[in-house]
Specification:
The protein has helices at about 35-45, 125, and strands spanning about 15-20, 25-35, 50, 55-60, 70-75, 80-90, 105-110, 115. The chain is mainly beta.
């Protein structure tokens, strides 16, 4: 059986993907992949996602330069979530979030409100032209 056939794709033909920094274990972001994106990610060893808003493949870093090199791809026990272990390139420390932060998970629930707790490393206006 083809490894792609073992994945439980949702009704739209997508699977959720978590990108985790290989060196630190930080969870960088959550995204989606279709079959083609996952196949290209495996072949290129570079994260390729599926943009639902643009309805097309999204090569992480194609505009920002913040590319994710893939070291390992893992599938969860239910075969419906993929984990990528990546090195985030393009800025030191790596920027994975479109807000210019290291991780998309930069908000912490504090005293009943979401607070940004991680700094902006680079102004998004200078990242996306």
């Amino acid at each position: 059986m083809n490894w792609l056939d073992q994945i439980k794709w949702d009704a739209q033909g997508l699977v959720p993907v978590i990108a985790q920094e290989n060196s630190s274990g930080d969870v960088l972001m959550f995204a989606w992949m279709n079959r083609e994106a996952l196949e290209q990610t495996a072949a290129l060893k570079r994260a390729v996602y599926f943009s639902r808003s643009r309805n097309k493949l999204w090569f992480k870093g194609e505009e920002s330069g913040h590319i994710q090199l893939v070291h390992d791809m893992r599938l969860d026990c239910d075969h419906d979530v993929v984990l990528l272990k990546v090195t985030q390139l393009g800025h030191e420390p790596g920027i994975a979030c479109h807000t210019g932060r290291h991780s998309c998970f930069f908000q912490s629930l504090q005293n009943g409100a979401w607070q940004a707790v991680d700094p902006v490393l680079k102004d998004p206006e200078t990242i996306y032209k």
